[in-house]
Design goal:
71% of the residues lie in helices and 1% in strands. The chain is mostly helical. The chain has one domain. Strands 1-2 form a two-stranded antiparallel sheet. Strand 1 and strand 2 form a beta hairpin. Helix 8 packs antiparallel against helix 10. The longest helix is centred in the last third of the chain and has 27 residues. It is globular, with a radius of gyration of 22 Å.
Length: 430
């Protein structure tokens, strides 16, 4: 890190604050805001050009791009729809169908992007609702919030999990067992069990039987093999020593390349690869690229140090209090702002707090991830999966009121976050 020039700190803070405000006010242009802010940090010298590349996490960017492309091929194969059909053939009524679909969405979301999960599962719920002539709004909301919950269960489940894994040097297995203790996967699943019980209670009156579903034919099994292959290779990479820092990203991009080549060969057209390439969310990748540089800039100017000191002061240097502040502040902030820039910003802050206090940062890392992931379920705008679900409903002619969403989102979030909050402290608290 270059030498800190205190006279530039107010400018760095002002630029960072303006960046966040503009991203909130202009959500469609977030990537341009982040990249523009990064350019200002570079042009003013607050972020030295020679050191800027070191702040860009290429492993994270490649993982996101690779998994998004593979997931697109997976969805197009109709395998998720087939899995949902099989699931529904084993439930007796609407109440259990809602819970089953929510848990299924959660399972898929542990390995697939949250928005993609909603886009996969929501049409199934819409079809059931149409056949039974019932309101689909509660069912779609339950699917959206469940997909948000499970995104933190594995390394590849959500962009925020990928960010944490990249920053903390965690591999795929570390989300299951870390430092010899059960890790985030089990904290999330504990929350999922409690929240499933809440859903059963909320939908207890929905006892209409489920009609026998038609089994969707799978058009191609190769994307399923590629998705499973991604998980297996990420696990294997966890055991191999002296791997490059970008190994996870290389794995994801390599398997995507295999999928694209197979698709082009079987369909005998290069045009066949256009759709999966378009499904790679370039906006998110450019946003993260810009944010990595912006965070590099405020780090160089000592802003991260000051923010960490402020939080430590609020917590009175008590680890439990600081952990509690991070968890519940993350829940609150993520209810209104996108959790991707929030987590990207807070990771170095949390690391600095732990360093200053001389403690292992794991408890604070996991607290940040759980709070930021689940907080988005409090409001309709708190997570992209919620917005996607509401968009599907709007296209079908259903308007979702804030109270309709929060009637499910609030109790679901509390039911999920409280057990996870206690679990993480129990196993990783200092």
């Amino acid at each position: 890190m270059g030498g800190i020039d205190l006279k530039n700190m107010p400018l760095a803070i002002g630029l960072f604050a303006l960046t966040y405000i503009l991203m909130l006010c202009l959500p469609k242009y977030r990537r341009y805001v982040a990249l523009g802010s990064a350019a200002i940090f570079l042009l003013t010298g607050m972020l030295p050009v020679t050191g800027a590349v070191s702040y860009i996490n290429f492993n994270v960017l490649m993982m996101i791009a690779g998994t998004m492309g593979i997931v697109s091929l997976f969805i197009d194969s109709q395998m998720p729809a087939r899995m949902a059909d099989i699931l529904l053939s084993h439930v007796p009524n609407v109440k259990w169908a809602v819970v089953a679909l929510a848990l299924f969405a959660g399972l898929i979301s542990a390995f697939v992007d949250n928005v993609a999960t909603v886009l996969m599962v929501a049409p199934v719920a819409m079809a059931i609702s149409k056949r039974l002539k019932i309101n689909p709004v509660p069912m779609i909301i339950a699917i959206a919030v469940s997909s948000n919950l499970q995104g933190a269960a594995t390394l590849v489940g959500d962009t925020t999990a990928i960010l944490l894994g990249g920053y903390a040097g965690m591999n795929f297995l570390d989300f299951f067992v870390y430092l010899g203790k059960p890790s985030m996967f089990f904290a999330v699943e504990l929350g999922a069990l409690v929240s499933a019980a809440i859903l059963l209670l909320m939908f207890r009156k929905e006892k209409a039987p489920i009609p026998e579903p038609q089994l969707t034919p799978v058009t191609n099994y190769v994307p399923t093999i590629l998705l499973l292959g991604t998980i297996v290779l990420l696990i294997l990479a966890s055991f191999l020593p002296n791997m490059p820092e970008t190994i996870n990203g290389i794995i994801c991009m390599s398997l995507l390349a295999v999928g694209l080549l197979y698709t082009a060969a079987t369909q005998k057209s290069l045009k066949a690869v256009v759709k999966p390439l378009r499904e790679i969310d370039l906006d998110t990748i450019l946003l993260l690229l810009g944010l990595f540089l912006v965070i590099g800039g405020i780090t160089e100017q000592g802003v991260i140090d000051q923010l960490a000191s402020l939080i430590a002061k609020v917590g009175g240097s008590n680890v439990f209090v600081i952990y509690t502040v991070i968890v519940w502040a993350s829940v609150l902030f993520s209810a209104f702002i996108d959790n991707i820039p929030y987590v990207a910003t807070m990771l170095p802050v949390v690391q600095k707090i732990a360093l200053d206090m001389g403690i292992d940062p794991t408890v604070l890392y996991f607290g940040l991830l759980s709070g930021a992931t689940l907080g988005g379920n409090l409001t309709p705008i708190g997570a992209s999966a919620n917005i996607a679900g509401i968009g599907i409903l709007r296209k079908a002619g259903y308007e979702v009121q804030n109270r309709d969403f929060m009637r499910i989102g609030v109790p679901f979030t509390l039911a999920a976050i409280i057990p996870a909050y206690l679990y993480i402290w129990l196993f990783y608290g200092v």
